[in-house]
Amino acid sequence: MKILAIDTSTTHSSCAVMEDDFVVGDFSISQSMSHNEILLVMVDEMLKKLNMDIEEIDLFVAVTGPGSFTGIRIGVTTIKALAMSLNKPIVAVNTLEALSFGVFSDKKKIPLIDARGERVYYGVYEGVCNKNIEPPALLTIDELLEEFSDKNEKFVFVGDCINLYKDRILENKNFEIAPACLNSCISRNACVIGKQKFESGEISDCFTLSPEYVRLSQAQRDLENRQK
Known about the structure:
By secondary structure, this protein is an alpha/beta fold. The chain contains 7 helices and 10 strands. It has 2 domains: about 1-95 and about 185-220, Nucleotidyltransferase, domain 5 (2-Layer Sandwich); about 100-180, Nucleotidyltransferase, domain 5. A 5-stranded mixed beta sheet has the order 3-2-1-4-5, sandwiched between helices.
């Protein structure tokens, strides 16, 4: 089975291909261009290097957020279009789930995604099976650190915004930071999770699959305020 996953939920654009149980291609770049400008170019270039045609992909994996509202829309729309045009199955993977998947630790894992304004999207996962024990939510970084400081447990943090808050995180002796190489492995991890979901029958409907927004976008909030 050949699987393609793409992720545009953070400042990185990334895509990965897994064949059977091996990730054979992984392309990630942090750049000033929009995801819309670079994403399909990345996918095309990676497939060319692998001597693979898009028609050979058996399963598409949509990384559905949370994260950048615009980025998620671009990624989800693109992967849905590919799956629908080729009449292939698609599965959805949460961004936080994919981030924490690569961290092997006996401690509980807290993946973080920058939501700007000192706010972060986060979730809590544990174990090799990466069980989600606290659903995705949004807090300021100080609120988050205060909440988990009170739990008197050990946690390991991973994510694209770790460097912004590294000093504050490490003030607590129960908090650790995962290796930096794990902060941008979303697409390759999503391939593995996607295969597991496909094999367990968790296949999404292309027509109803949608981004996972933890909060309303600014445009939606402005619209609701005008309608009040």
